[in-house]
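Predict the 3D structure for this chain.
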Amino acid sequence: MARAGMSRRFAVGLMALLLGAAYATGRAEIRLADRLPVTLDGQVLTLTGSVVGLPQALDHGMRFLFRPDAGGRVPPVPERIRLAWYDDPAQPSAGPGRLEPGERLRLTVRLRQVSGLHNPGGFDYAGWALARDIGARGYVKAGARLPGRDGGAVDRMRMRIRRWIDTHADPTVAPLLVAMAVGDQSGIAASVWDVLRATGTAHLVAISGLHVSIVALLVGGALAQGWRRIPALALRCPARRAGVIAGCLAALGYGALAGFGIPVMRALIMLLVAAVALWRSQRPAAGRVLALAAALVLVIDPWAVLSAGFWLSFGAVAALVLGLSGRRGGDRRLWRLARAQLAIGLVTAPVLVVGFGQVSLVGALVNVLAIPVVGMAVVPLLLVAVVSRWVLLLKFASAIVGALMPVLTAAAQLPLATWQHAAPPGPLVLVALLGSTIAILPRGTPLRGVGILLMAPVVLWTPPAPAHGTFEARVIDVGQGLAVLVRTAHHVLLYDAGPSYYHGGDAGRSVIVPLMRHLGVRRLHRMVLSHDDADHVGGARSVLGALEVGSIDAGSGVHVRGRAVERCVAGQHWQWDGVRFTWLHPDTGAAWHSDNNRSCVLRIGSVAGSLLLTGDIEAPVEAHLQATGRWQPTEVVVAPHHGSKSSSSEALIDSVHAHDVVFSAGRTNPYGHPAPVVVERWHAAGARSWSTVDDGEVRIDADDGRLSLHAWTAEHRRYWHSDVADPRH
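Done. Predicted structure below.
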């Protein structure tokens, strides 16, 4: 009998799994069919449509979602397009000005397929866009406003609230208040995010169960109190039921203002289930409510599992259910809060290590202060101020957040505020999750101490380092620029730091530092900045601000504020762990007029093979190095100047006899890098070509006494990565 019951459960579980897979596959096919066709990639089109959602202000323009009119999508374009509209200094009136949700526009746009950068531990833009049903990206070349509005009433209300807060609150904390009020986090500075993550308080500005519960309790409780005082109403409907209805409606309205993110949907579903149970005088098991909420979230949004927020949100609630259930006694509220934060920290730590490469060690303590302050003071004051438009209440909320942020900043700057660790293998993560779950069970649970032991492998695990005498190199996908990470057994070198971006930010912060955390790299022993071009040094400041950096070597004209710089000089060399590093260029006192030709050229030699890093040198330098006999046979070459026609001359190609050449360039870059004639030139010499455009990060390993190359996209390509070629292996 028991065996039959288990068989039925297994069959039901398997059927549910198959139905879920079929449902997600069908939804994916529909979304993939609404992507920009390759024939329209890079084309200029004129479209009429409306602004969707809240536009985001940039340093030099606006970014927004655009929905073309159904009848005007000829040729067919996706239903949702992410556009950037930049200011024109020569014609200020031609810029976007202040866009409104639902505003009608006629735009001349250049459209591109959705694409992103592909690196370990990096942000998957294509997956992010798929989850948000964005089928294309592009920028506005010219635009005009049209009369009328196209829906967007809720978003216009959100926009008015955002502007009201920006007008009356302290500018330093206004973005945080906007995030708490309407769920718009676009205005929060990167430095503030660093503080929030380091202190484990990022959840306070992401509208979640805390905020939704406060709204439901405030509205439901207030209405129930008033309801009881009106006998005619109380006789028709009990005050508790009236309060439940009011609280649920208020929570739904708040969820709409917040944009129905994953934590909001989870909280709303759990609240509605609890409300139904309360209405029917039932007490459903918390675990079942949580499982139902997860199932409904995935029905609404199958791609929620791609977001770390999904796992953190449900993991935190699961930790609360496990950590606080089965316990009796009169614990003080402060101690219960601390214990709850410790439980959440243990359960979510493996997810944070995988997703962000770091875990806050001060989070449990800081949240004991921050959660009551935000939950009991800031959020109620803020929401009442938004509804009543009472500026004084907004000022109070602003002042409290303004007083809290220095405390969080000081905590984030403590020496042991965070624990950084390389992303461990999947099996170790599962073991750690099992261990953390066991560790937070009630006192007296058998083998409870084993949970801590099960978490030890993740803590003790370190990624394998190259063997003595060999190296690992990664040509990082930074777009149109260059950054190469080289590791020996005990040392790390970064050659160039990628570009800065026109729309703000740089590759150092968005690509290189996350990769370092993913790999567990805490210190650079040497940074090389080959020459003073923005696509090579644009990310240097972010790298220097996030990591400990030993020495800096740089080409002529490169200066780093606050740091001493050594000039690379041909003939100088050093050795790390049996690997030889040699400068081939420039010569002492050499006067090359082109900044590109002053690039530092570095050759890395080992028992497994050699690698040549050439910066942006051009044909004259290549001929000079051939004439002086400095070129040597080299297995792998990172092509000069991203594969430009001005470089990779016969003087280089015929001298190095490379087996493989790697081009670092950006997809759809305006220079046409790598030039087809250059790629063919290397092919004719017998070299196999790799490109970050199609391959993403290219990793060079020493395997079996020789160098082997691996493309990130060949090993990690997903069905939504339509911007990369099919794997070559």
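The longest helix spans residues 2-33.
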